User: Fold this.
Amino acid sequence: MEERVIITGTTGFIGGRAALAFEEAGYRAVPFAGNVAEVEDWRRNLKGRIDLIVHLAGTRTESDRDYEINAGGVRSLAEALRKAAQKPAALIFASTQALYCGLTPPFTEEMPVSPPTKYAQSKLEAERAVSELGREHDMRAVILRLSTVLGEGVREKSRMSGPLALWTRDAVAGKPIQVFQDGRQTRDYIHVDDVAAAILLAAKSGEMKGIFNVGGERPIELLTLAGWVKRAAGSGSEIVIRGGDASTADPRALCSDTTKIRKFGWRPLKSPREAVRQYVARFERV
Assistant:
């Protein structure tokens, strides 16, 4: 019997790719219908047999809406599960590397975190609720702290994947590619397909439990990313350094240690540069 998986956020960048990965792996991937912040919507989605919940829906607005959706979504799930006829065997939750802001990389899962932004705080609150759900229902809970994800499907308004969408738009139009600070900031970018593979691994591996970093492991400067965009677009755009200082929400360096998830057989297989090429190629077609 194929396993039935409820996946939230399937209309989004990461969720859509994850749903495809589950279907290709033989699961029955069922998109969540409704608002994840509403208990009744969770109750409707949890009717019947549910083997696994993959909770990827989220928002980043740096406003109270982040608490409503990111933390409130897990609280609503918790309320719905208390009366559900059948409990899933596992819950996989997509969190963020932003929890480590203010700390010195490379980041490990054991580091005590006290994030400075509303978005990261809402994700930390959600993580705690996910862990509590696991204990309450004897359910395997897996939290994946994702680094900056790149690939076809990135949305400019999502604020999740840095300046890729904005820079691509400007490069295709022949406008200057504007890089803030000095461009030497670093990020461990990760291809969206490698993120989907990590989510699928968390579903398959009955031994995975707790918090895991998912990142590209190699620091890449923003100037390098801007150059990749320019070359992929075949653009003559000038790369312009705008200056400015690092902030708590946009720190100088981000890089996660992925030793913990590597022990379960995962490693990044696709390069961030390939993700940029795929995104730019798609951008130019639409």
